[in-house]
Design a protein that fits this description.
By secondary structure, the protein is mainly beta. The chain has a single domain, classed as Pnp Oxidase, Chain A. 9% of the residues lie in helices and 44% in strands. The chain contains one helix and eight strands. Strands 1, 2, 3, 4, 5, 6, 7 and 8 form an eight-stranded antiparallel sheet that branches. A hairpin with a 3-residue loop joins strand 5 and strand 6. The longest helix has 12 residues.
Length: 138
């Protein structure tokens, strides 16, 4: 796989619930992480005293974070509304040359910052709130 541009890792939001996703405005840096809890089933009978894990068990989760320049665009307004209303809409994460992850996410944090001689910035944190789908890019 060839080296990819970081700017091609996109976080998109379904603005109206109709399946039309729009990139969240102003993001400069994004990160997505996937996690799976382990379920330890080690016992006295475990071979050689090695830990054993139960496959397919445990809770899976994903988190998305991003930071960027505050643009006061429609996606900024929608993100604020989602946070304050406690909504759990659909998001997409486009991972270049890999695929698209889609599912419900809750915005768990929004932070705004700025200095007197710089641009206004923001940070956004999302947590998965249900099953996710993955579609590989062709």
């Amino acid at each position: 796989m060839a080296v990819q541009n970081g700017k091609d890792l996109l976080v998109k939001l379904d603005l109206t619930g109709d399946g039309q996703f729009e990139t969240i405005a102003g993001l400069r840096a994004t990160r997505v992480s996937f996690n799976a809890e382990t379920v330890d089933v080690t016992s006295l009978e475990s071979q050689g005293g090695w830990r054993e894990l139960l496959g397919g068990a445990g809770v899976k989760s994903a988190s998305i974070s991003g930071s960027g320049v505050f643009r006061d665009a429609g996606t900024d307004e929608r993100a604020r509304q989602i946070f304050f209303d406690g909504e759990v809409p659909q998001f997409q994460v486009i991972i270049p040359s890999f695929g698209v992850v889609q599912g419900a996410f809750m915005i768990t944090a929004i932070e705004y910052a700025g200095s007197h001689n710089g641009e206004a910035t923001y940070e956004l944190t999302l947590a998965s709130a249900g099953a996710l789908t993955f579609t590989a890019l062709a």
